[in-house]
User: What shape does this take?
Amino acid sequence: MRIAPLALLLPLLAATPAHALLHITRDHGGYVDEYKAKYKRIRETGERVVIDGICNSACTMVFGIVPMNKICVTPRASLGFHQAYYDKAFTFGIKVTSTEGTADLMSYYPDTVKDWIRRNGGLTTEMKKIKNGTDLWRIVDPCPEEW
Assistant: This one.
């Protein structure tokens, strides 16, 4: 009986783990605890993260939870940082900053992120953005061209 060469490869392909990928294109952030849990799962599964657009607020915690060698940015990447604040639903729509929450957020960032934040006046209530270029590449590597 003859077995086609492709039939011999199928079991090998089925046994090879798929490399999962989180592709961030438009993430404006949210609850810090939800992002901590999300990125912890990604770190544990070994997923790669491609930032290919907006990654603001709690989204940026990826840099402190997922290993940096698993994260890359495309030319469309943009990062936004600001102070943590309480859910406006509990503060009658007023943005009330949280010193404790901001300190917690900063504790997750690697030194490269902390240095950029310090060089740009620290975290404030206003969004501070890093767009593609040298400042961004000091923090995270550009993605290979195939992404």
Summary: The two ends are 43 Å apart (CA to CA). Strands lie at 21-27, 48-56, 71-73, 78-81, 128-131. The longest strand covers residues 48-56.
